[in-house]
Amino acid sequence: MVEKASRTLAYICPVCRKPVVIERSVFQLAASASSLPCPCGESSLHVEMWGDRVRMTVPCLFCGRDHTVACSARAFLHEKVLAFSCAASGLDCCYVGEEEAVFSAMRRLEEAMDKVEAEAGAQGTFLDEIVMHEVLSEIKEIAQRDGISCTCGSHQWKLQVNYSSVDLFCAQCGAAMRIPAATASDIDDICCKTKLLIRGKE
Ligand SMILES: [Zn+2]
Ligand SMILES: [Zn+2]
Ligand SMILES: [Zn+2]
What are the tens digits of pLDDT across the range 47-62? Predict the structure, then answer.
């Protein structure tokens, strides 16, 4: 049996929303912990091998959080395709495997994502209605106190509501900030904030 000595890893960048597909040799993956960044530089997938276990930290587009997932090194290096999913949304957030299998899994995920987003947009449905409502009203309160600004100095911003998160965009430099709105702890997180700072141009 001829083993392909490389693995393909993929996730969707929560910041620029583009699929990130990276190929690494088995040697590179085993040699040291790797950080596999999105070309936009705003998110990255971390992979660490510990003996016969592999641990990955995956930025998740759907809930806006990082997921830590683990599997055996054997599965990681040999399975045709492994899928890891987001517990909050039930959608896949990361694939590891052979190049072709990973690419087709990614295509299906992108289709599923488009559908979820389109449905959410059309019907105004969210992963959790109450959480979304609370998070939006907290953002509104912060906005009323002029608490939303960008590191570029702008206080002008736009808001986009997603299925399980809210994006704030700086109207001047275009920088984005994602606020998760998936679980009750996301309400707690935003409740204690009086300011939201978008990381744009300094
Ligand atoms: Zn990106
Ligand atoms: Zn998630
Ligand atoms: Zn800005």
Answer: 999 889 999 999 998 8
Q: Is the pTM of this model over 0.85?
A: no
How far is it, in rounded angstroms, from Cα 199 to Cα 195?
A: 13
Residues 6+ apart with CB under 8 A from 140: none
3 Cα to the center of ligand 1, angstroms? 31
Q: What is the pLDDT of residue 3?
A: 53
Separation of 64 CA from ligand 1 center, angstroms? 13
Which stretches of the chain are assigned E, i.e. beta strand?
A: 6-12, 19-25, 34-37, 44-50, 53-59, 66-72, 81-85, 92-97, 148-150, 157-161, 165-170, 176-180, 196-198
Q: Which residues surround ligand 1, an ion (CB under 5 A)?
A: 13, 15-16, 38, 40
Is the pLDDT confidence value at 157 over 80? yes
| The Cα angle at residue 138 between residues 150 and 132, in degrees rounded to 5 | 105
Q: Please tell me the distance between residue 13's alpha carbon and the centre of ligand 2 in angstroms.
A: 12
Spacing, Cα 126 to ligand 1 middle (Å): 23
